């Protein structure tokens, strides 16, 4: 059984060219059981493409029978080129695609299923790729949640995003190009659903509805394609776009297109990611926003934390509007990493250690070191109890400098960021020196750590090389592993970094207490990327240190 109808309005003309073709609507009975094909003829209203540059809009078409789904195909020819264009069209009762071919066909067409909001369809292939157009780091971020039967993550590790690009079981992977690869055969039994979601970055203005081209395409290895247009969003800053879920022994996809005004915080808490050790649910869209909350009182000048988890210290009020706006953007980038890693509100100490040796000359003269200090201040506002950086410069010796404050950072940089001379009463050449020896400064920091404290310390250690005393440094790091501090080492340049490159495999430690990454030039990293690298391992250490009773 086969039914073919030509459009009432005759030939189809491709606008902007001389090519003329025809519209063919077809269905093949062999693709479906007879019961699925209505026996009575009916009128189908066909929704054509809105792309005025490619298609004219046509009216209703009568066919001999009403199929579950039809395929529209046009074949266009001209003296200069020959191309084919196709658009899948749906009728009421859409359930799955049909491959259509006839004597004019030059090969089968890949079926495309277009899901409107709320619609669902079966996924035929276990290996699938989900692409979300309109996303980009720093504007709209992409997330994938592995959810249980209650639509909650089993643990924070079930959140796949830029800072955790693969699930523990390897079934969900976020590629560098922003696509989510799913291996449905490898999804653990306790996971009932994968939610594909997006959130507008804190620095990006406007709701998701203003993002151009936001849409989802699910491509299966066999060529089947499922598209889900993002529809119905208004003021939402975060949303679930597509759900891939189990149903009756199979996997299905549903176009959700629903979200929250509260942005990232609302998105992750809705799905059970731990934030402030609670699992709260945002009020429905349109409800009043929650009032800013404060940290436990510590006097009249206590820091405050807003509804998005961004901490503000009193000294920020002294900044100019321009400086405060720039600081706010960086604070939000820091808070975002901490939130997605489940480490918000873990305030303690932040220590900054900077290499002051001759090989760093270019870094100082170009202003790279000065900018490092400025970019570490937002980290202190979010993680240091008083919002200040404890600072050291080191060479063969070291100098403990006054704390870097939010409102005094520029003056501090002018006074203390130098390679030579006498500054703030410190003889940089005699006391600090110009060659590397990391042992004295590391021992000094370790000595300042209280074994019995409940306050965590983050050490940010910037260096351009050295660390040649491997045995002594390894001994210090093993000793430090029982103290409440995490050491994040940042290598600047392309020199060898010795033992730092092997910290991940260092044995004999109570917990893994150190991380390392290197970059040719810190200025080349965006704020969001820098903070991701700086803070990606610190939240994991916090949990491990508490479990091992290192943090009491």
Task: Please characterize this protein's 3D structure.
The structure is a single chain. By secondary structure, the protein is of the alpha+beta class. The chain has 3 domains: 2-109, no CATH class; 120-270, Lipoxygenase-1, CATH 2.60.60.30; 324-547, Rossmann fold (3-Layer(aba) Sandwich), CATH 3.40.50. The chain contains 10 helices and 31 strands. The strands form 8 sheets. The protein has a 6-stranded mixed β-sheet, with no helix packed on it. Strands 10-20-19-16-12-13 form a 6-stranded antiparallel β-sheet. The longest helix has 20 residues, at 321-340. The radius of gyration is 30 Å and the shape is elongated. The model is unreliable at 1-109 and 276-300 (pLDDT under 50).
Descriptive tags:
disordered N terminus, Lipoxygenase-1, Rossmann fold, 3 domains, 29% strand, alpha+beta, 552 residues, single chain
């Amino acid at each position: 059984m086969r039914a073919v109808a030509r459009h009432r309005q005759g030939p189809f003309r491709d606008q902007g060219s001389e090519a003329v073709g025809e519209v063919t609507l077809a269905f093949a009975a062999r693709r479906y059981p007879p019961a699925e094909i209505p026996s009575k003829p009916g009128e189908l209203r066909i929704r054509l493409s809105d792309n005025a540059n490619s298609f004219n809009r046509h009216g209703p078409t009568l066919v001999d029978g009403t199929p579950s789904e039809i395929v529209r195909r046009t074949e266009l020819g001209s003296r200069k080129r020959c191309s084919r264009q196709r658009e899948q069209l749906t009728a009421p009762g859409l359930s799955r695609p049909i491959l259509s071919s006839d004597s004019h066909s030059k090969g089968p067409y890949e079926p495309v299923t277009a899901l409107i909001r709320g619609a669902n369809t079966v996924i035929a292939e276990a290996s699938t790729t989900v692409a979300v157009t309109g996303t980009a780091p720093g504007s709209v971020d992409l997330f994938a949640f592995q959810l249980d039967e209650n639509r909650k993550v089993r643990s924070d590790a079930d959140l796949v995003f830029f800072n955790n690009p693969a699930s523990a079981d390897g079934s969900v992977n976020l590629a560098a190009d922003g696509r989510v690869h799913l291996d449905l055969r490898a999804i653990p039994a306790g996971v009932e659903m994968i939610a594909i979601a997006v959130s507008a970055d804190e620095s990006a203005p406007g709701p998701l509805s203003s993002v151009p081209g936001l849409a989802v395409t699910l491509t299966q290895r066999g060529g089947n394609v499922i598209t889900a247009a993002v529809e119905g969003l208004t003021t939402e800053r975060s949303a679930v776009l597509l759900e891939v879920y189990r149903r009756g022994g199979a996997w299905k996809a549903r176009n959700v297109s629903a979200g929250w005004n509260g942005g990232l915080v609302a998105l992750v808490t809705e799905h059970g990611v731990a934030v402030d050790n609670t699992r709260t649910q945002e009020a429905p869209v349109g409800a009043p926003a929650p009032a800013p909350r404060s940290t436990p009182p510590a006097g009249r000048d206590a820091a405050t934390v807003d509804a998005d988890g961004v901490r503000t210290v009193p000294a920020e009020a002294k900044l100019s509007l321009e400086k405060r706006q720039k600081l706010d953007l960086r604070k939000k980038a820091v808070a975002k990493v901490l939130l997605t890693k489940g480490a918000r509100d873990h305030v303690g100490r932040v220590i900054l250690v900077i290499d002051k040796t001759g090989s760093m000359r270019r870094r100082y003269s170009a202003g790279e070191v000065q900018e490092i200090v400025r970019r570490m201040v937002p980290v202190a506002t979010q993680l240091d109890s008083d919002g200040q950086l404890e600072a050291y410069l080191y060479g063969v010796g070291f100098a403990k400098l006054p704390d870097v404050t939010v409102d005094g950072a520029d003056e501090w940089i002018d006074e203390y960021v130098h390679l030579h001379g006498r500054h703030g009463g410190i003889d940089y050449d005699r006391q600090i020196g110009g060659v590397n020896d990391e042992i004295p400064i590391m021992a000094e920091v370790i000595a300042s750590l209280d074994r019995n404290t409940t306050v965590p310390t983050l050490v940010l250690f910037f260096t351009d090389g050295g660390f040649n005393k491997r045995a002594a440094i390894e001994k210090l790091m093993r000793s430090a592993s029982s103290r409440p501090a995490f050491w994040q080492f940042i290598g600047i340049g392309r020199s060898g970094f010795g033992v730092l490159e092997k910290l991940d495999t260092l044995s004999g430690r109570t917990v893994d207490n150190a991380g390392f990454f290197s970059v040719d030039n810190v200025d080349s990293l965006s704020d969001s990327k820098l903070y991701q690298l700086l803070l990606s391992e610190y939240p994991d250490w916090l949990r491990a240190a508490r479990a091992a009773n290192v943090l009491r």
